[in-house]
Design brief:
single chain; 192 residues; alpha+beta; Alpha-Beta Plaits; 2 domains; four-stranded antiparallel β-sheet; two-stranded antiparallel sheet; 7 helices; disordered C terminus
Length: 192
């Protein structure tokens, strides 16, 4: 078993009700901290499960059994260059070079705020690109794929999240079978 950390954003139960937190505890969320922030119910999980997919599915089912409506999962799938740098443990300058095409080719296009100075990218797309270019582990790509797929299905109102999520994640993971390519050497590096 492994412990997976993520947050479910939900709405529904009255946070002022006396049994608000107890309701989540009794529904199987004893491994989560429940709070109400910025108009949303946040359920921060540290869930033990054999896979991230199972952790997410069981958490969604537990939260839904309280009468809450799950809106999405976080960490947020939309990321800035700074967010990408932090998640990949690389510098912001490196992310900027990838984005501008100075390193690597075919970096994913931004998904939101495209006309602004600080566009946002889909972390699942970026993590897959970084993995394919030998810069990120498969574990991080899997985490991004599961959360992105779950968010997509939740936003569509899918009722059979369990089977749908499995199929979507399998599709993403089948694309990782060949493994990452070796990272390209910078022209400034000396070859031994």
């Amino acid at each position: 078993m492994e412990t997976f950390e993520f947050t479910l954003i939900a709405s529904g139960p009255d946070p002022e009700a006396e049994d608000f937190e107890q309701r989540f505890f009794e529904a199987g969320c004893g491994d989560a901290t429940v709070s109400f922030q910025k108009g949303h119910i946040l359920v921060d999980f540290a869930r033990e499960a054999p896979t991230l997919q199972e952790a997410v599915l069981s958490a969604v089912e537990n939260v839904q059994s309280t009468g809450a409506v799950v809106r999405r999962l976080e960490p947020d799938p939309l990321v800035s260059l700074s967010d990408m740098a932090a998640r990949s443990k690389m510098s912001r300058a490196a992310m900027t070079h990838y984005f501008k095409g100075l390193r690597g080719r075919d970096f994913p296009a931004p998904k939101a705020r495209i006309t602004t100075e600080s566009p946002l990218w889909d972390w699942a797309d970026v993590s897959l690109w970084l993995y394919a270019n030998g810069r990120l582990s498969q574990e991080i790509v899997t985490f991004a794929a599961v959360l992105s797929s779950a968010n997509h299905l939740i936003s569509r109102g899918e009722t059979d999240l369990r089977s749908q999520l499995g199929r979507r994640v399998e599709d993403v993971m089948s694309g990782l079978q060949n493994g990452p390519v070796a990272p390209a050497r910078s022209k400034r590096q000396k070859v031994p």
